[in-house]
Amino acid sequence: MGGRQRVKKKHWFEEIAEHLGPTYLRYSFTYGTTQEVDTLMSVLALDPGDSLLDVGCGPGRHAHEFASRGINVTGLDISEDFIHLANLKASENASFVCGDARDMPYMEEFDAVISLCQGAFGLAGGPTLQNSKGDPDGAILSCMSRALKPGKKLALSAFSSYFQIRYLNENTTFNAETGINHETTFVKNEEGESMETELWTSCFTPRELRLLAANAGLEVEEIWSVDPGDYTKRVPDLEHAEYLLIAHRPNNGEKK
Ligand SMILES: C[S@@+](CC[C@H](N)C(=O)[O-])C[C@H]1O[C@@H](n2cnc3c(N)ncnc32)[C@H](O)[C@@H]1O
Predict the structure, then answer these.
(1) Annotated domain spans of the chain
(2) Residue 170 burial class via C-beta count within 10 angstroms: exposed 0-12, middle 13-18, buried 19 and up
(3) Which residue, by CA, sits nearest to atom 15 of ligand 1?
(4) Ligand 1 centre and the CA of 118: distance in Å?
(5) Bridge-partner residues for 96, per DSSP?
(6) Residue 91 has what pLDDT?
(7) More confident residue, 28 or 253
(8) Which of 114, 170, 227, 231 is deepest in the core (most CB within 10 A)?
(9) Full-model pTM
């Protein structure tokens, strides 16, 4: 990715994104984009011409899919490499910015906000957690909430604590105090070179998601148990890897 000046990394995921590059899109969890966007178009009540903020958009798979349906998308990601990849695919309705979800400037600008597949929400723990006051993922949710126009909806997916503990494997350690799952794994770049890396993923129960949402000034509509590529209305259970939170920012005057 010649020519671009490297700045000091702000988040541990940036090094992973830099190594992965386009191979990120070979992971099977990225294959369900169309089904996910089909469902979210309806759940978020989106129409062509509406605006959407995709927080932690990665290489822009959801952003491009929404844009192809006439939604005006802003994709934000902390990784320069992923923003570069997102920009390689020209799109009239999608623009991409490098930015930190922990410090987003948007105020009441969007008809919908999403954070999918640990797009910032769920990755705020780990080595960057130490100096944070309060819950760092909750702080991201508050920034997402502020970006919504009153009355408009947000959707985010989050790892299920119950599922993680139930199916814990030898490469992962679940921290009961923080709810963070720590995993050591290998990621391959386009040349097939392996890099050992660590992942710190925040996991949640539906109750925690409800409490964080209330704290962010959101009204929870539904929480579903989902898997990537299988966003289906389903009561929260112990059998699916993620929860999908759907909430809205109350209209001025709507009772919270
Ligand atoms: C697992 S990827 C998910 C990408 C995309 N949402 C998807 O579903 O494919 C997580 C993304 O979140 C981004 N990210 C993590 N922390 C972030 C932060 N604080 N601000 C912005 N982006 C962040 C990473 O750079 C990465 O692109």
Answers:
(1) 28-159+205-248
(2) exposed
(3) 120
(4) 6
(5) 75
(6) 86
(7) 28
(8) 114
(9) 0.95
The closest-lying atom of ligand 1 relative to the alpha carbon of residue 117 is 8
78 alpha carbon to ligand 1 midpoint, in Å?
Answer: 7
The domain made up of 28-159+205-248 is a member of CATH 3.90.480.20 = no
Pocket of ligand 1 (CB under 6 A): 11, 13, 17, 30, 56-58, 61-62, 76-79, 82, 100-102, 116-120, 123
Between the alpha carbon of residue 118 and those of residues 142, 251, 255, the distances in Å are 16, 27, 30
Pocket residue to mutate for ligand 1, from 9, 12, 13, 28, most atoms within 8 A of Cβ: 13
Is 160 a residue whose pLDDT tops 90?
A: yes
- How far apart, in whole angstroms, are the C-alpha atoms of residue 228 and residue 35? 9
Query: How far, in Å, from the CA of 62 to the mean position of ligand 1?
Result: 12
Mutate which of 117, 123, 180 to test ligand 1's pocket (most atoms within 8 Å of Cβ)?
Answer: 123
pLDDT band at 1 (very low <50, low <70, confident <90, very high): very low
